[in-house]
UniProtKB/TrEMBL annotation, chains A, B:
Name of the protein in question: Pyridoxal-phosphate dependent enzyme
Annotated Tryptophan synthase beta chain-like PALP domain residues: 17-304
Top-rank taxon, per record: Bacteria
Keywords: Pyridoxal phosphate
Organism expressing this protein natively: Carboxylicivirga marina
InterPro entries membership: TrpB-like_PALP, TrpB-like_PALP_sf
Cofactor: pyridoxal 5'-phosphate
Pfam families found in the cross-reference section: PALP
Upper taxonomic lineage: Bacteria, Pseudomonadati, Bacteroidota, Bacteroidia, Marinilabiliales
Length: 314, 314
């Protein structure tokens, strides 16, 4: 399988740079003291649409040919990818067709509609989502943009770590959460080629441990009944992301739901940042394995900040 | 009365620079669209101890003579100034004596104690706070550091706008909230001398409108029964801060409690930043007076992010 290279991520970075926020890297002395390590948080919760997903979606839209742009882009998603693709398309004058389950939260429907996307509602099953998307693509000729298992998307997501390392070159470890694996595989692609001495480590909820199981066994394992508060991490790896992760990631740590909530709360209280549960998973892994991370300099990608303020876990 | 100059704020900046976070300036397209203006948020909620108060406290501690440092610093406060002074003192090896009302929230007592300060509890009245502080100073010889009505504190707070303007020189307006007036007077001191074309405008809760009344009448008016959610703005101006504000501030706008909560929620939801109600007051003023601020480039100092997550107004 042909895998992306660091040069592809550098190319993506040049391409998306005028369209994305260069998000800040923040540190927090009191969290460092609690962990016994030195953490550098790349704040993609402060990215447009509140998530790193905007990088991959923007790169996918900008990589379309002029002919493709005429037909627009399409995806099925009820989460950050839908909003990211809708806004990336709008800003570039491209139509976005989003298939959403009819039971998606009102606030997400509104956000996607607010970015001018064409929404098609469907039954809330994966089969319905996929068949509805197929039909939309058949009718419109739109180009499918997958939330993670796609070259341009992976390269876009990898630019978060590229930016993080621009000003923080002497890290020991880079950590991300892993759901579908777009961010993790993009990160590993860039980091293991340009900073080979750095370890790339993922955190994953123990209650949605498909990436951990797949990584350990070397064979793809789909997620079964993922019951985690980290709603961004309930998906299985894709064929492309798994291939990259298998080859380039150093390790994956599982974390408990309690640790995720504790880490999320620490980031809210100590750093004054609104982060969604998925974002807290790498910090949860550090907190659960303090001896292993002791005194390390760790870059952590904070993936997003889209939470329902009416429904906080604390 | 001898007033500080921009040069004093530049001196404070050089002095505190190694000790404070250079906080990011963030923008938000959707809030800009809602307001019809272009806003640049200087995020002092991401400052150490979660508030701009750390700047003034650090400048006060660093301005002590060696002899004064031996005796430590003292203040009475139940809010951000107490935590700021405690940490600034600790980092510089100086003792901090903090007088707190015995009914202060547990979390604030803990924070101040966690920074190694010596806490003296007193009855929750201003008279008790002042007499207890006097007694502490008599016993220890500590130097009083006022939360706002003090030269070094005002100069420290002014550095937030100095930093904001380093990368955003073509603003039309700078806005801060006003409580005791330390931040507003420091801002006006720097801005009106170095960028005289800029307007300096404050937002104040209508339910705690002493600065507005004092500014309008030209005569100091103390606050009476301040009943506002913006807990950082319930104090009256000081003699020094009022003198500066009277001379250098362009205007003060009053805002309703509803606007404060609405603006706070906008910042939480759209910017993914945890801000305390006081921080939202300038944005509330923009939202209440959209025609006046239309198309203006406005720098806003986000003052702090210390809120009780168990007790949110939304």
């Amino acid at each position: 399988m042909n895998l992306p290279l660091a040069a592809d991520i550098e190319k993506a970075y040049e391409q998306i740079k005028p369209f994305v926020h260069q998000t800040p890297v923040l540190t927090c002395k009191s969290i460092n003291e609690i962990c016994g390590a030195e953490l550098f948080f790349k704040c993609e919760n402060l990215q447009k649409v509140g998530a790193f997903k905007y990088r991959g979606a923007t790169n996918a839209v900008l990589s379309l040919s002029d002919e493709q742009k005429k037909h627009g882009v399409a995806t099925h998603s009820s989460g950050n990818h839908a909003a990211a693709l809708a806004l990336a398309a709008k800003i570039n004058g491209v139509k976005a067709h989003i298939v959403m389950p009819e039971n998606a939260p009102e606030i997400k429907k509104k956000a996607v509609a607010g970015y001018g996307a064409q929404i098609t509602f469907c039954q809330p099953t994966l089969a319905a989502r996929e068949s509805t998307l197929e039909e939309v693509i058949r009718q419109t000729g739109a180009v499918m943009v997958h939330p993670y298992n796609q070259w341009e998307v992976i390269c876009g997501q990898g630019t978060a770590s590229l930016e993080l390392l621009q000003d923080n070159k002497d890290l020991d470890i880079i950590m991300t959460p892993v759901g579908g694996g777009g961010l993790l595989s993009g990160t590993a692609t860039y980091v293991k080629e340009v900073f080979p001495q750095l370890k790339v480590i993922a955190g994953e909820p123990a209650n949605a441990d498909d990436a951990y199981q797949s990584f350990r066994k070397g064979v793809f394992q789909p997620v079964v009944n993922p019951d985690t508060i980290a709603d961004g991490l309930r998906t299985s790896l894709g064929s492309l992301t798994f291939e990259i992760i298998k080859k380039k990631v150093d390790d994956i740590y599982l974390v408990s739901e309690e640790s995720i909530i504790q880490a999320m709360r620490l980031i809210w209280e100590r750093m004054k940042l609104i982060v969604e549960p998925s974002s807290a998973v790498p910090l949860a892994a550090v907190l659960e394995n303090q001896a292993l991370f002791k005194n390390q300099k760790i870059g952590i990608v904070i993936t997003g900040g889209n939470v329902d303020l009416q429904n906080l876990p604390f």
